[in-house]
């Protein structure tokens, strides 16, 4: 018995080139063969592999369940039989015998890990001229049926190459995006110091007693930094009317989400007023 040969669907599952059989004495006439209606066969590990009736130089299409694709195929006779799965991963395998009366077996492994073994027999010498034109394969074991609902465990070579190419494209796009973000960030950092304005005035003596050290702003925020024994309340003054405002405070730094013109810090009776200088407005 010939040793099984592993074939990948991505490579076409072409075990042998299709060859024309020379006619001669004793060779059955393939023209009288008639395709039978499609049928479904159930494959179970505990049962004898079902028989597929193949016609001389006729193609029989084997279809796995819709949820599966062919990952590998092992065949006993790759000389007298042609096996073809196409050039992309699919659920289809075409078989064709080249020698009258020949037999072999085929073992199919799906991408879900299911295994299907079939017996192939060329029937041109039989009294019945019909051969199987299309065979639907169905798993007969519960474990095999359960696998259909799970994720594939094998990735056909063609799909793996596609995934690798897509991953490479995604990585290249991400690298370009990161580079653009880094360039933008560096440009912002280089320009940021020019957007800082230290144009506030306050009573330095009162500020020192309260703990206030500096006040500045950029184009969006106002900042107040100090070393405070107790966190002062921060007020904005508009039209000579004070009002509490929203701010973030962390490690002695006030961050106010707006540009303040006038305001003050207060703890109890202590109060430090500040305002933007007239030149800055």
Automatic annotation (TrEMBL):
The keyword Signal applies. Gene3D superfamilies: 2.60.40.2500. InterPro entries: Conjugal_tfr_TrbG/VirB9/CagX, VirB9/CagX/TrbG_C_sf. Residues 1-22 form the signal peptide. Keywords: Signal. The keyword ATP-binding does not apply. This is TrbG/VirB9 family P-type conjugative transfer protein.
């Amino acid at each position: 018995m010939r040793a099984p040969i592993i074939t990948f669907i991505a490579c076409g599952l072409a075990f042998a080139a299709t060859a024309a059989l020379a006619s001669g004495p004793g060779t059955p006439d393939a023209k009288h063969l008639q395709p039978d209606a499609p049928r479904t066969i159930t494959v179970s590990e505990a049962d004898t592999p079902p028989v597929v009736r193949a016609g001389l130089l006729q193609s029989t299409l084997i279809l796995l369940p819709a949820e599966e694709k062919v990952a590998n195929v092992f065949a006993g006779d790759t000389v007298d039989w042609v096996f073809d799965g196409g050039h992309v991963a699919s659920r289809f395998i075409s078989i064709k015998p080249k020698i009258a009366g020949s037999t072999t077996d085929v073992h199919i492994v799906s991408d879900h890990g299911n295994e299907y073994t079939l017996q192939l027999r060329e029937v041109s010498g039989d009294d019945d001229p019909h051969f199987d034109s299309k065979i639907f394969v169905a798993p007969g074991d519960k474990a095999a049926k359960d696998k259909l609902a799970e994720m594939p465990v094998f990735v056909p070579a063609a799909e793996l190459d596609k995934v690798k190419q897509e991953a490479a494209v995604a990585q290249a796009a991400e690298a370009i995006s990161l580079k653009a973000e880094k360039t933008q960030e560096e440009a912002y950092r280089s320009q940021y110091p020019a957007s800082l304005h230290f144009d506030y005035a306050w009573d330095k003596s009162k500020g020192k007693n309260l703990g206030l050290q500096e006040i500045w702003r950029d184009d969006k925020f106002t900042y107040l930094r100090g070393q405070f024994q107790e966190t002062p309340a921060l007020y904005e003054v508009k039209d000579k009317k004070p009002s509490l405002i929203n701010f973030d405070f962390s490690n002695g730094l006030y961050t106010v989400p707006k540009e303040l013109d006038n305001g003050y810090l207060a703890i109890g009776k202590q109060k430090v007023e500040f305002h933007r200088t007239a030149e800055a407005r």
